Amino acid sequence: MKRRVVVTGLGAVTPVGNTVSEFWSSVREGRVGIGKITKFNTTGYKVSLAAEVKNFAAKDYIDPKAARRMEPFTQYAVAAAKEAYEDSGIKIENEDAFRAGVIVGSGIGSLQEVEKEYERIRTKGPSRVNPLMVPLMISNMAAGNISIQLGFRGKCTNVVTACASGTNCIGDAFRAVQYGDADFVLAGGAESCICPTGVAGFTGLTALSLSQDPMRASIPFDKDRDGFVLGEGAGIVMLEELEHARARGAHIYAELAGYGSTSDAYHITSPAEDGSGAAKAMSLAMEEGGIAPIQLDYINAHGTSTRHNDLFETKAVRLALGEEAAKRVNINSTKSMIGHLLGAAGGVEFIVCVKSIEDGFIHQTVGTSKPGEGCDLNYTIGAPVQRDIHFALTNSLGFGGHNAALLVKKYEEGV
């Protein structure tokens, strides 16, 4: 039998706040965390805007010696994981550590470390490369370092599915708890690649916005959208088996009720034009959660602000929900405020769903004013919406055709 899974801890490092409290307060205010890139000189680059994490000091979360052996994406992951762990109230010393898992992904890992060491090899020779280059660079080190820092000795993996990584990690953690591989799992994603290679690479794909206006750069579903804004950060949640949470008197934020994961089998960067792959992921999540599309209150869309994504995701919503439910549901994109956090996006956007259910609050898609052709659903434009939310769905769609959807349910005590 499947075991029920609930959310008992939240942790976030984002461009608009380095704790969940700061982040959610900023989201409620509609604060945009996009600005001029400060991490490197953008002279000669077509793109000059990004959504950087601000005022983050690794020493505030991690022993300085350990922090020096972590790249920023790992530091963000560890900081967010520690917040989620502390928020959950779990004490690992009172638990079987082999029943405690970590499933945290990063779409890229550290491009910065590759840049630094390539330059060192080029100018000083291969013998001068940093001996820690590989463990600093590889994307599984977010999960590995969380495990080391917190003493979680159970299943520890790293799902890499580009922009769907965080959502797939939460989905795999959901399955691990459902089927008894673990009693609780820290899950989500982390990313930090606002660097010359990252910006140049995505610019070369014509994926990034060329706007110079932070308020009109990331404008999902808008007629003037021209690409996404690169962001960074981490979103980590504690997923826990319901009876384990109840037995220790945990605060339960919400229930994770369904997960869908599919592939478009279509193109390396473009989503399937008919939206069928993403639609199937949504349908699978709703079917597992036992709800009809008309019961869905809110969708946190992938909503990247690219021409293709927003149009094809709109088609996917229609296909998965049907016309009546698609017109009724509130849709928004958190990327309008924090840009696209790539492998971390799914973790942070899952937290938005949980907090939206808790507060009965759906943030507006900030900066979006007039939907583009074919984008004709309710994208929560102009003002946030206060409404009771029983079921929320979050979508993540990654390069390579990876689609993932999670259904979050309002938790009712005793049900």
Unreliable residue runs: none
Number of domains: 2
Structural Rg:
20 Å
CATH superfamily of the largest domain: Thiolase/Chalcone synthase
How many β strands by DSSP? Answer: 14
> SS-based structural class?
alpha/beta
Task: Give me the secondary-structure topology.
Elements: E1 5-13, H1 20-29, E2 35-36, E3 49-50, H2 64-67, H3 72-88, E4 100-105, H4 111-124, H5 133-137, H6 141-150, E5 156-157, H7 165-178, E6 184-191, H8 196-204, E7 233-241, H9 242-247, E8 254-263, H10 276-289, E9 298-300, H11 307-321, H12 323-328, E10 330-332, H13 335-338, H14 345-359, E11 361-362, E12 385-386, E13 391-398, E14 402-409
Parallel strand pairs: 4-5, 4-6, 9-10, 9-13
Antiparallel strand pairs: 1-7, 1-8, 2-3, 6-7, 8-14, 11-12, 13-14
Helix pairs in contact: 3-6, 7-14, 10-11
Structure notes:
- By secondary structure, the chain is α/β, with parallel strands linked by helices.
- It folds into two domains: 5-247, Peroxisomal Thiolase, Chain A, domain 1 (3-Layer(aba) Sandwich); 257-409, Thiolase/Chalcone synthase (Peroxisomal Thiolase, Chain A, domain 1, 3-Layer(aba) Sandwich).
- Helix content is 34%, strand content 18%.
- The protein is built from 14 helices and 14 strands.
- The protein has helices at 20-29, 64-67, 72-88, 111-124, 133-137, 141-150, 165-178, 196-204, 242-247, 276-289, 307-321, 323-328, 335-338, 345-359, and strands at residues 5-13, 35-36, 49-50, 100-105, 156-157, 184-191, 233-241, 254-263, 298-300, 330-332, 361-362, 385-386, 391-398, 402-409.
- The protein has a ten-stranded mixed β-sheet, sandwiched between helices. A two-stranded antiparallel ribbon has the order 2-3.
- Strand 13 and strand 14 form a beta hairpin.
- Helix 7 crosses helix 14 (345-359) and helix 10 (276-289) packs across helix 11.
- The longest helix is centred in the first third of the chain and has 17 residues, at 72-88.
- The protein is globular.
- The relative contact order is 0.18.
- The mean pLDDT is 97.
